[in-house]
Amino acid sequence: MMEVKEKQFTAELEAALESVQTDQKDKLFSYTEKINQVNLYRFLEKAAQLAFPRTFWSSANEDFQMAGAGHAFELSAEVSGSRYDQVEQDWNALLSDAIIYNPYHTSGTGVVALGGFSFDPLKPRTALWRNFPSSHFSIPNYILTQIDGDYYFTINRFISYEDSYASLLEELQNNRQTLLDNRGQQNDTSVLRIQHKKEIAPDQWKKTIKKATDVMKNTSIDKIVLAREVRLHFNQAANISDILKRLVDTQSNSYVFGYEMGGDCFIGATPERLVKVKDDEVLSTCLAGTAPRGTTVEEDEQIASNLFEDPKNRKEHNYVVQMIRSTMETYCSEVSVPDEPVVHQYKTLQHLYTPVRAKLKKEHGIFSIISGLHPTPAVGGTPRQDALAFIRDKELLDRGWYGAPIGWMDSNNHGEFAVALRSALIQKDEASLFAGCGIVEDSIPESEYEETKIKLMPMLSVLGVD
Ligand SMILES: C=C(O[C@H]1C=CC=C(C(=O)O)[C@@H]1O)C(=O)O
Ligand SMILES: [Mg+2]
């Protein structure tokens, strides 16, 4: 730390400890400074060396990235009905007492909570997701934020009145130095290989699709999203920071995330924004309907125009648009939704895409919108409760955090959540990958199976070769 900054830091820390002691109440202390460029992936490596659980977020156009180390404070709610309310209440309570030094007021700096939810709190949790509760948010001890090429470093420390100034200062300064040290070995050079790949019950999955289409022919259910799992075994433990870097480098137009809990890490590169809130501006995205990429420009365009015209994919997409529009109208004003989707291209596939814009009504926040939107028919179905009941009952998979909201929010009430698709739960030298498809009445099991294969490709390619 430069000397003038160091003086500022020690003065703020001293004042914070004094406030905690005077009030006899533990409080979160948060200090943000602007720093020179630091490699985010190196920061994550150093965090692992210090045994800190890691968090990572990269927005779809990479102009905003956060890497977190440690949990200064955790928000977690196991309750099902009100888990959003519970997290929101605990978050507001934490903020109301927090001592924040942040002259920049830039999104994603200072007191930031990163975290997410499980897909369905009513589905019994299996051993696979033992480290991931129904909801969990972390205010990391140390956050490195990159915005438009500028770098910020935040220290968050929950201070108890029993803490001593000298040991606090030593702890925070030592960790700061280690985490921001760009020297040392670059990323691991050993090659991650897939030694064993097991598709979990693909034939049964296709049978469940047939069951779903039969149900849709005979009931008022219009759409059910069904997912499946692929389990991998590697030649060595996967290097999380390396994989996150590879996802950012290869998956354009995608949110890349990482969330480490109890040694397991949930990672992904998802194209789907659930909601972004900045002041009163709200953005959401309807994404459903899929086709592969072509090998030539002509073929690519032909596939795109077929996707745009295809009634089955348009149906899948329209259920999402209808539901997101009506939910947004509950929480927002000036809801604007284009009449038709466009085709968006990603590395291995193309999607039908409809952006949504709105203005947040004063009485609502990001959690109200999340609770209204999740699960959209891009991951659940229509009508929601019937589709969820089918998934809960018939899908073989424990989705855990797959298909659920994952993201961040800060003390300025800015935040963004994506839908955790194209994701994997990494467990040292093993991983579970997830992919699902929107099933409508005219779905063909074999084609849906092919669709999951292209959705799995990006993650398989960053996790090594067969
Ligand atoms: C459920 C997934 O994708 C959803 C998002 C976009 C397109 C979809 C589709 O065309 O089926 C799915 O609704 C997944 O990737 O696991
Ligand atoms: Mg589909």
TrEMBL record:
Source domain of life = Bacteria
Q: Where does Mg(2+) bind?
A: E316, E451
**What pathway is this protein said to act in by its record?**
Quinol/quinone metabolism; menaquinone biosynthesis; Quinol/quinone metabolism; 1,4-dihydroxy-2-naphthoate biosynthesis; 1,4-dihydroxy-2-naphthoate from chorismate: step 1/7
EC assignment: the record states 5.4.4.2
The entry lists its GO molecular-function terms as: isochorismate synthase activity
User: Which cofactor(s) does the record list?
Assistant: Mg(2+)
Q: Which residues form the active site?
A: K223 (proton acceptor), E272 (proton donor)
Which InterPro entries does the record cross-reference, listed alphabetically? ADC_synthase, Chorismate_C, IsoChor_synthase, MenF
Stretches assigned to coiled coil: none
Question: Which reaction is the catalytic activity of this chain?
Answer: chorismate = isochorismate
Q: What does this protein do?
A: Catalyzes the conversion of chorismate to isochorismate.
HAMAP family per the UniProt record, alphabetical: MenF
Q: Which PANTHER family match?
A: ISOCHORISMATE SYNTHASE ENTC, ISOCHORISMATE SYNTHASE MENF
Q: What is this protein called?
A: Isochorismate synthase MenF
